[in-house]
Amino acid sequence: MAMSVGGEGDDEVISAINTTPLVDVMLVLLIIFLITIPVVTHTVQLQLPKQTVTPLQTQPKSIEIAVNRDGDFFWYEQHVDAPTLLARLKTASVQTPQPEVHIRGDQATRYEAIGRVITSCERAGIAKVSFITEPPARGG
């Protein structure tokens, strides 16, 4: 048999969090850590060697290849044909660290021309190829 102490409208849910168990657990953990810290800090006294930090690898220079709307290739700003492009990419692929290739294609360029550049990069052994696009205009 249930007993109700209060009025008819006392069906409210208590939204307060009881933090007493949380505080109890935190105090127990604090005591455990205070006891174990002196045990951990006892180590053999050593004089460790000094080491200076030097960068192991420099950032490779990226190669920029542009393709205009007619499908012509440009190594940076110099016009090159397909065999010259492949030869330059093969030369760049053996550099350490290997440079990345950034392809800039005109919006009206046929995909076939861009595909030839990607195929040349693949044949040359270039590991990283990326495309340069113009970011969208911000609406204000």
Report on the architecture of this protein.
- By secondary structure, the protein is an alpha/beta fold.
- It has a domain at 63-131: Nucleotidyltransferase, domain 5 (2-Layer Sandwich).
- It has helices spanning 20-41, 82-93, 111-124; strands spanning 63-67, 73-75, 78-80, 101-105, 129-131.
- The chain is elongated and about 75 Å long.
- The chain starts with 19 loop residues before the first helix and ends in a 9-residue tail after the last strand.
- The model has no long low-confidence stretch (mean pLDDT 84).
Summary?
The chain is an alpha/beta fold.
Spans of at least 5 consecutive residues whose pLDDT stays below 50 are none
Number of strands: 5
* Main beta-sheet annotation: 5 strands, mixed
Examine the coordinates and then state which fold CATH places here, giving the name of the CATH topology of one domain.
Answer: Nucleotidyltransferase, domain 5
- Listing every helix as H and every strand as E from the N terminus to the C terminus, the arrangement reads HEEEHEHE
Spatial shape:
elongated
Keywords:
140 residues, alpha/beta, Nucleotidyltransferase, domain 5, elongated
Task: Please outline the helices and strands.
Blueprint: H1 20-41, E1 63-67, E2 73-75, E3 78-80, H2 82-93, E4 101-105, H3 111-124, E5 129-131
Parallel strand pairs: 1-4, 4-5
Antiparallel strand pairs: 1-2, 2-3
Helix pairs in contact: 2-3
Organism: Paraburkholderia unamae
Protein name: Biopolymer transporter ExbD
